[in-house]
Amino acid sequence: MKITSCLIFFLFLGTTVFGQGGLPPSFYEGKSVVLVSTDPAARPAMPWQQLSDSIHTYLVTAGADPVAYYELEQVTLSAERQAEYAKAFQQRGVKNLIFLTRQKDRASVHVGAFSGDGKLIASTALFGISAQDWKGAVQQLAAVGKARPSKNLLVPDLAEFPLLTAQEAAATAQKFFSRNPLNLEVFRLGIPLEGTSAVTGATSSFRFDLYGKSPETLLAEQIAQKKALENIFSGQYPHEVAWLTEAKSNSQLLADRIQFVLVKVEGRQADLMKSMGLEPVSGDEGSKTVVKYYIRFLVREELYLGPTWDAHPDWSIALRQFLENLKK
Question: What are the structural domain ranges in the chain?
Answer without folding.
Answer: 2-165, 175-325
